[in-house]
Every structure is written in structure tokens, then in C-alpha cells.
Amino acid sequence: MPVAKVIELIAEGATMEEAVSKAAAKATKTLRNVTAVNVKNIKALVENGKVVKYRVNTKVTFVLED
What we know:
alpha+beta
């Protein structure tokens, strides 16, 4: 059975999907065997009464190599 590790990343984007994609893309630049990105929390940043961007707190799971 493989052993996995989980790290937390925070990313921002114009949409929630963009923010999650940024977290996944950044993680895969330095980690191998990334298997999942779990969104733990979503925050909408508001300026002048309008949502200007989204911030997601994610948990990234990757399988450790032998």
C-alpha cells in the first residue's frame, strides 16, 4: 500500500476554478505523484462592493516514492 503526504497551499485567481488550477500547477512543478487537490476553504475578496478575486486554501496529496 502506498504512503501519501498532504501539504497545504493557498492560491488566488479571478475564479474559483482558476485559483484551484494555480494551486495544482504550482504543486506539480516541484512535487511528483500529485493525486488530488482538496479545497478546504474558499474566500471571496471584495473591493467597492464587488468580488475581485477568490482565494482557496487547498490540501494537496501526493504519493511518496520508495
